[in-house]
Structure formats: C-alpha cells, structure tokens
Design goal:
Blueprint (H helix, E strand, L loop, with lengths): L1 H9 L2 H4 L5 E5 L13 H13 L3 E6 L11 H10 L4 H4 L3 E3 L8 E5 L7 E5 H5 L3 E6 L1 E3 L3 E3 L1 H9 L2 H8 L4 E2 L9 H5 L5 E4 L2 E4 L9 H5 L8 E2 L2 H20 L6 E7 L21 E5 L2 H14 L5 H4 L5 H5 L7 H8 L13
Parallel strand pairs: 1-2, 1-6, 2-3, 6-13
Antiparallel strand pairs: 4-5, 7-8, 9-12, 10-11, 13-14
Helix pairs in contact: 1-3, 7-11, 8-11, 11-15, 12-15
Length: 348
Amino acid sequence: MAKGGRRCDALQLKKVLKRNDLAAVKIHFGEYGNDTHIKPMFARVAVDKMKAAGVKPFLTDTTTLYSGTRHNAVDHLHTAYLHGFTPETVGAPVIIADGLYGEEDVPVRINCKHFKDVRIAAAIRRVPSMVVLSHFKGHEMAGFGGAIKNLAMGGASVAGKRDQHGVHVQIDDSLCVGCGRCVKVCPQKALSLVNGKSHVDVSRCIGCFECITVCPVRPNKAISIDWSSEMVPFVERLTEYAYGVVKGKQKHICYINFVLNVTPDCDCVGWSDMPLVPDIGILASTDPVALDQACFDLVNKAPAFDPKIADAKTDKFTARWPHTRGEVQLSYGEAIGLGTREYKLEKI
C-alpha cells in the first residue's frame, strides 16, 4: 500500500486533477471468480490521495458486451461489492459509467482511420479528471491489457465495445467436440448445436468473443476469427477508442499499472491462472503509451514460469497467444497521438 501511495505522490495529483470537482478512479472490478484483479486496498490508497488533492473521487467501470456477472449495472455492482469494492472499504461510491444496460454514451469526434466518432461511456466522458488503475496482464485477443485497453474497452459503452470488436466468429467443424459451452454463454443466442456441432448465426453474432474464451479445445480452438487479417485492425480500433476516452483532457488523467499477478488471461474471465512471470512492481505515469511500453519491456525481460514461453523469440504475450498483435497498441497509440513509446524509469 505504501508503494501505491508513493506513486500517487510522484504523479502530483494536485496538479493533474481538477480541484473541487468530481474525479473518477477507472478500475476493473474483476469477473466473479477471478482473484488476481487489483485489490480494493490499492484503490483505497488512490482514493485517499485524491481526496487530499481536493477532489471528490468515485470508482467506475462499464458494463460488458458478453454475458457474465457484470453484464448490467446491478450485477456489476454486486460483483464489485463481493470483491471488496464497497464504499466503506474504498472510501468512495461505485458508479457504473454507461448506465443500467450499457446504453448511456457520448459521441466523441476523433477522425482516425477506423472511426470518425467513438461512443464513450457518459460518466467517463463527462468527468473532468481521472486516475486510471490497471492490472497489467495477458489477453487472448489484445495480446496484453494495461492502461490502453483499460481506457478502450473499459471506457466504452456496449455499442462502443461492439464497434471495437467488429467481427463475427467462425467454427471449425473438424475440431468442435459439441460440448455446448459456447452456446450457453452467448449473450445474443447466435450459437446453437446442429448435428452435434456448434453453429454460428453471423447475423446475430456481435463479436464479443466470450465463446472463444470458454472453448475447451486445445491447443487450436474450434471457435476463432480470421486471425491473420483481423488482429491488427482489432487492436487499432481498440487503441482509437482509448484515444477517444482521453481526448480533450489528457493533462487531467494519470495512470498506475500494477505489474503483479501477470496472468495470461484478462480479469474478465471467472478464474485465475498461474502468472507468466514473477511480480515486478507498480508503475505510474501521465502517458498511457509510455507506461504500457515500460511494463511490456519489463515483463519480457523477466524470467518466465512457463517453460513454453521462457525461450520465446518474440514477446511473452505473443508466445502465449500466437495469433495476437498486442504491440500494435503501442505503435499505433504513438502514431495517433495517444502518447509516446519513449520513457525513462525512475525508482521511488
């Protein structure tokens, strides 16, 4: 907790946050069953430091595109409370930023390659300043998730999340075992079992990819997308949404990444796997690209627990999820003005 407090002090919150106004703590509360998300005590440290800086903080996140324990504001709040993010514990209220069913958003003009406008959760768009707390870890689609992904998916309404995903899944009949797990979790009822095999109705599929997450077939899953052509555009769309979240208030947002429990999966899954590397620490910056780049580099320099990725010729996240192109978050983020990949590490 002391380390988190020192990071807040180094960020000089009094200069970043707009005094005597509301300020958001953007955080991921974790899907129910996940226990490697950021702990409430770290959020409490940030809240106390923010109050000392003269703002009125609240914790926030958005509803999910996929089904689960955070699919609407009520379920999301229950999950947050079960994981310890109660007003009594963290010292601030919890507000779901995009409304009851994820429908409350504000358009933001960005004029980028994939989007002219993006749909940002109303409360996140309207709040004048933010402290973004992110658990740095792997991700089956984005490669890795840090500050950029926390802004992008976590800052968008349901419609915005659908825009970012933008593709439908496909089924390989030769691999499908007909277990039906994908059918059970599909929020749009786009999947069904036909002759003992999963079948997708592409007119209903919204590309939430929850079915890919639960498919038990290994190593190549029976459900996929066209990885060769879709991964780079997906990560670029995600990065454009991150840019849309911060546009117009870059000077009033700061970031803290927790490079602890660096699991291969996002905290959106209802379980926790063995970490890829030992705990590295807590990093902070006012630049989300520089911060994610530093975390990315530190993870790749660290020894790996999994021998399968220990001698990887590429980065550890791509070694774990070979189809991903996570580094595009960094290169494209710099290209569109979200931040810079250059950084200097200072120990405090």
